[in-house]
Amino acid sequence: MKTNSLHAILDTIWSKLESALVERQSPFKIMSLATSDQAGTVSQRSVVLRAIERGYALVFYTDQRSAKLRDIDQNDQVSLLFYDSNDQVQVTCQGVAQVKNVDTADLSNFSLRYRKDYTTTLAPGTSVGDPEEVSYDSDKLHFAQVNVILSKIGYLKLDRERHIRASFKRIDNDWVGDYLVP
Q1: How confident is residue 113, by pLDDT bands cut at 50, 70 and 90?
Q2: Average pLDDT of the chain, as a whole number
Q3: What pLDDT, on the 0 to 100 scale, is given for residue 138?
Q4: Which of 46, 51, 90, 115 has its CA 20 to 30 A from that of 26?
Q5: How deeply is 70 buried, as exposed, middle or buried, from its count of CB atoms within 10 A (0-12, 13-18, 19+)?
Q6: How far apart are CA 50 and CA 31, in angstroms?
Q7: How far apart are CA 107 and CA 147, in angstroms?
Q8: What is the dihedral of CA 65, 72, 42, 174, to 10 degrees?
Q9: Which residue from 97, 101, 70, 82 is spatially nearest to 156, judged by alpha carbons?
Q10: Own/partner long-range contacts of 131-135 (Cβ < 8 Å, ≥24 apart)
């Protein structure tokens, strides 16, 4: 099998995503999430990849009161972007975002250090006069898990000799791919 076969490309994508879960410095650890609201205004922000279900879904966490969840409530179609500058590989993912509000009991293994990020008394994006004014209420956890059920994956490998671009669509439980002109 050629190293750039469609099967090998898809396997490389999943391997890079899986390695991001254990390698803190992986370029695929942080992804760009694009959402749009009802008016069609697009917003992008960085989120941390927290889990994957190979071949099916990617997971990130957020505050239940965040603007991204308001966008997802209005339009659940999202896009994710990953880029590895060392390997010159870009991966795009499209899918449907499903929000799961998580009970505090479900977070027993969740580090207290990170739990604090979801306990601010004011919602994310609220204006404050000084960062020191941000306060926390450890009794109120505003944690949500977002599962992005993937429908499409794009791949672009930049190379001096020949760029390689591929597109994959999930049909039932299988991924069907095509090469594209870069």
Answers
A1: low
A2: 91
A3: 79
A4: 115
A5: middle
A6: 11
A7: 16
A8: 140
A9: 82
A10: none
Alpha-carbon span 60 to 151, nearest angstrom: 17
User: Which sign, positive or negative, has the C-alpha torsion 116, 23, 173, 182?
Assistant: positive
Among the listed residues 36, 135, 45, the one whose alpha carbon sits nearest the alpha carbon of residue 77: 36
For 3, 28, 47, 118, the CA distances from 104, given in Å and listed in that order, are 45, 28, 21, 11
DSSP the chain: --TTSHHHHHHHHHHHHHHHTT-TT-TTSEEEEEEE-TT--EEEEEEE--EEETTTEEEEEEETTSHHHHHHHH--EEEEEEEETTTTEEEEEEEEEEEEE--GGGGTTS-HHHHGGG-BSSPTT---SSGGG--B-TT---EEEEEEEEEEEEEEE--SS--EEEEEEEETTEEEEEEE--
Per-residue pLDDT reduced to its tens digit, 125-181: 999 999 998 998 878 888 899 999 999 999 999 999 999 999 999 999 899 999 999
CATH 2.30.110.10 fits domain 6-102+140-180: yes
Asked whether the CA dihedral 112, 118, 121, 125 is positive or negative, the reply is positive
Residue 56 has pLDDT above 70, yes or no: yes
Torsion angles phi and psi, residue 36, rounded to 5: -140, 145
